[in-house]
Every structure is written in structure tokens, then in C-alpha cells.
Design brief:
Distance between the termini: 18 Å
Mean pLDDT: 89
Structural class: mainly beta
Protein name: RCC1-like domain-containing protein
Number of strands: 30
Largest sheet: 4 strands, antiparallel
Number of helices: 1
InterPro entries: RCC1-like_dom, RCC1/BLIP-II, Reg_chr_condens, Ub_ligase/GEF_domain
Radius of gyration: 20 Å
Strand order of the largest sheet: 2-1-30-29
Keywords: Repeat
Shape: globular
Amino acid sequence: MEKRLYAWGSGGTGQLGLGTKDDHTLPQRWTHSDQVVVEVESVTSGGCHSAGISSDGRLFLWGSDDRGQLGRTALEPGRTFVDVPIQHVACIPRNSVQKTKLVACGWWNTLAVISSNADDDDSQTDQVFSWGSNDHCQLGRKRNAGGCKAAQIRHLSLRLQVSSIACGWKHCLLATAEGDAFAWGSGRHGQLGLGTCTLVTDIPLRVDALKSVSVSDVFCGWEHSVFRTSSGEVFTCGNNRHGQLGVCETLTSISSETPCEKQKHICGSPLRVLDPHNSVEGLRTIHVSCGWHFVMCLTERGELLTWGKGSHGQLGLGRFESASEPQVVVFPHTVRQIACGSEHAMVVTEEGDLYTCGWGEHGNLGHGDRNNHATLKMVEFFQHTDQAVTRAVAGGAVSLAVTSAHKHK
């Protein structure tokens, strides 16, 4: 079945991949001649650049390269952005055995997982590469070792199998197939989950506070982190100034050793987010997504929950206010998938419809205007096509949607 990719929102550095530096307030279909769009299996977006992985494991990047985040050895003189997808990241292995498995875009850096024997899970071995800005050791190596040249992150197991990666403003997270979580980069706000004394680390360190649970997914906000376990529980750490940790600040960490520094709105060890219907039970989630200062998740009950900063309406609660603990979003449709940009949210329904809310200054809500919306509103554009939205992606002020034909009504 043919897949299509649509992009809209902020395009000032070419991060929409449409061949221009224009913003778009309505979804725009990718129509590149090399047909890479049809082959895209996954796509992600960071602050000012984006990346995609094709069905055969090729990695493509586009957008700003002002800090080397596209992994190019050089661009044309005076050119600091690429507005269409490019391949051939410097020093990344490219052969029939090694394929790109995962990619994550931070503000000025990129993280990618390259797998060998990807078709055989038992013998698969993953390598983690990073490139771009390393001002805060977010590349997982010494601060003076940044730049556009990609390099493998050392200090990880030789038999590594990665299940999830994420990039924030100044830090990165990784989860292994064994359920361990690793963090590196800046920890000044406790976002590494390694305690408030770890201000920065240039090597990946295991988050030992989570050793009693199995971490399956990791997510980075601007200065906070979210960990989802294999049982669906959610743990958070880092900056809680806007309530983005979703917990009462008087609680202690999972290890019960280090209390939150309430006066600084900082928590350096992961906290369990509680179910709003049961104050002694942790959340049970199916999907989680993280914005700069807020979180959205889909629970096993089918409820949509949000918390954190809400000044742009990104929580979808009908008001422009923050929430320090999980709040139920009133939404009458069955949710399939969710995605959060910097200050906006996207929700895909089982019927293949797309809804958005939050910050819309660059047209990133897809409604044909630049207004903010505090409630989830359907993106009407897709109602006039035969396309069903199967997946949404958001990063910064960029919105992306993967679609397929034969929408079900």
C-alpha cells in the first residue's frame, strides 16, 4: 500500500524538506523525484532539522546544518541548511549488512543507531553514532570532539541492542533491549536521572535509580526526561518549573534516597507518575510523547492524559494554563497514536483522522492559520483526500504525517 508523507509548520531552515525555507499552514505532500518519500518507514524532527529512515535502512537528513547536525563534511560555501533530504552521513557505515535502525534529532545534534544483521534479532548488534554540537557533551564524548563528523559512542556494551533513543536540548537518553536506561550530556537540572550532583557527563551512564524496573522507551523534553517501562509505568526527572514531571514536588525519588529540591523545581532521580484515578498506583500507558515542557500519554484505558506547561494550549484541556499532575483530556474518539512538538500536540485516531492543539505561530497545527488552540481540532485537510493518517510526528514547530490510502469511515 502506498505511503505518503506530508509536512507543514516552520520551514525557515529547510526542516520541512520541501525544497524551500517557507512556513506552511496546511499539509504539503512530499514529491521528491527519487521516491524516497514513499519508502520512508520512520521520520523525526528536532529543533531546526529532521531525519528519516527508508524501508531499506538508509538514513536521510535535511534542515539546518549550522552546527554539523546533518553530518555532512561540508556544504556549499555560505550555505548552512539543506532543504531536501540528503544521504551519506559522514563516517556512518553503509552496506547491505548494516542498516539504520533508529534516529533522533536534538536541538543541534543527531543520534543514530546502526544495526548489523537487522533481520535476525538474536544476532543483531547495534552501534550508536552521534554528530553535531557537543557543547554540553551530548554526543557522548569529550566536549572538544564535536562537529559534523559522525563518531561511534563508546563505553556501551559490544553486544548492545537498543530499543529507544531520545535527544533533548543538551542531553540524550537510550534504552536497551534488556531494560536498562542510559543518560549523558547536561544534568544541571537533574534531567539525566543520576542525581543533582551530576552536572554533566561525556559518557553514557546507567540510570541506576531505575534498575528495579525494565525501561522500554525514553523521551527528552527541554530540561526533563521521561522513561516508560515495559509494564507501561511512567517515570520522570529534571526541571519541574512548569509541572512537566507530573508529580507532587514533596515526593521522593524511586530510590527513596534523594528528595526533590523544591526551591529549584529540580528532581535528580526518577519519580513514578501516579494514576489520577488511583493515587497509590502508577500510570499504565500504551503511548507517551514529550514536548519541551509538557507530556502527553495514552493509557491502557484509552484515556488521553497531559500535564506540564499549557500556556499555548498544548495540553488540550480547553484553557491556556499549566497542570502539575496528569489531567484527563476530554476527547470522544479512539486514539491510535500521539506526538508532541515543542509546544503543540498531535493525536491520530483509529479512523485515520488527525487532531492538533497548542502553539500555531508557524502554521504547525495545520489549520490554515497561525492561531493557538487550547482544544484538539481536526486537521480538515485530510478530509478532502482518500488518505488516512497512520502516524504523526512533531518536533519544534514542525509537523509531519504519514498516510496510506483507503480511509475508513
